Amino acid sequence: MRGTIGRYHRAVNAVPPSGPPLPAPLPRAYWRRTLRATALLLAVWFAVTFVIAFFARDLQFHVFGWPFSFWVGAQGGLAVYVGITWWYARTMRRLDREHGIGEDGLPLHAAEPQEGMGRPGGGIV
């Protein structure tokens, strides 16, 4: 087992002498839009978690037949958190496509596995 792990690390960390150049740093526009989306979603999270929950008792109206304070605590917050997660994934997927970035943060053309990497038989580790 120990020899297998050592061979794996040597294979993963090996840099082919004629391999592709290192990817260029991501553009400032990509990071600016990423930080803007993250800041917006953190503000929504903070507002739902602390601001609305703090003032919920003072808001005297009903949502789906229940008092607003109960609804925010039992259902509303969770629904917003799921919405935040969905919106972030959708936005980042779109932003990654616009800038040509793969799932692992590398440019799409560099994200493909190189010959000889991974498990024998072509599987990716």
Structure overview:
The protein is mainly alpha-helical. It has helices spanning 2-13, 28-55, 68-99; strands at 62-63, 66-67. The longest helix has 32 residues, at 68-99. It is elongated and about 65 Å long.
Concise description?
This protein is mainly α and 125 residues long. It contains 3 helices and 2 strands, in the order ααββα.
Radius of gyration: 23 Å
Helical content (DSSP H or I, runs of 4+): 55-70%
Given the helix and strand composition, which structural class is it? mainly alpha
> How many DSSP H or I helices?
3
Give the neighbour order of strands across the main sheet.
Answer: 1-2
- Shape field: elongated
Give the percentage of residues in beta strands. Answer: under 5%
Residue-averaged pLDDT, rounded? Answer: 75
Number of strands: 2
Question: How are helices and strands ordered from N to C?
Answer: HHEEH
For the sheet with most strands, the description reads: 2 strands, antiparallel
Low-confidence stretches: none
Distance between the termini: 16 Å
List keywords for this structure.
125 residues, elongated, 3 helices, 58% helix, two-stranded antiparallel sheet, mainly alpha
Helix and strand topology:
Elements: H1 2-13, H2 28-55, E1 62-63, E2 66-67, H3 68-99
